[in-house]
TrEMBL record:
Entries under PROSITE patterns matching the protein: GNAT
CDD domains cross-referenced by the UniProt entry: NAT_SF (cd04301)
Protein name stated in the entry: Acetyltransferase (GNAT) domain-containing protein
Keyword tRNA-binding in annotation: no
PANTHER family named in the record: ACETYLTRANSFERASE
Coiled-coil regions listed: none
A Gene Ontology molecular function term of the record: acyltransferase activity, transferring groups other than amino-acyl groups
Keywords for the protein's UniProt record, in alphabetical order: Acyltransferase, Transferase
Organism: Olleya namhaensis
Length: 145
């Protein structure tokens, strides 16, 4: 297993995984849109994307977005995406990606990592086993429609 930080040379590999990730969350497949979105992230460098490889095959990724906590006046990462291809789940790829995300956070000396997931996502047990704490504060979201 190898974990690397993606750059534009990995665009097709990450876009394919990102498209699979979106399908997992019941979105219509859209490889063209996925490619455009990931290319924008990599070009603008507004996220850090880590890719997991089994041998030379990309099998998972996580994406970290830069953000800030105004109250603590510190930067933090939002771990917006974590995905491992279903054929490679329960083999340590998710654990390794999450631990590498923690290492990136420490390297940048950021406050921490925030993430959101569906209430029914079985990965919650994984997060908790790696020291993540569920935030009981209320969260609201406004959609611009």
């Amino acid at each position: 297993m190898t974990i690397i930080q993606a750059n534009l040379t990995h665009l097709d590999q990450v876009a394919t995984l990102f498209n699979q990730y979106r399908i997992f969350y019941r979105q219509t497949p859209n490889l063209e849109g996925s490619t455009r979105f990931i290319k924008d992230r990599l070009t603008k460098q507004d996220s850090i994307i880590l890719i997991a490889f089994a041998e030379k095959k990309p099998v998972g990724f996580t994406q970290l977005f830069h953000s800030f906590s105004s109250v603590s006046m510190q930067p933090l990462f939002i771990l917006n995406d974590l995905f491992v291809n279903e054929n490679y789940r329960k083999q340590g790829y998710g654990v390794t990606l999450l631990n590498e995300a923690k290492a990136v956070c420490k390297k940048h000396n950021y406050k921490g990592l925030a993430l959101q997931t569906e209430r029914t996502n079985p990965a919650q047990k994984l997060y908790e086993s790696l020291g993540w704490k569920q935030d009981q504060d209320l969260q609201y979201f406004w959609t611009n429609q």
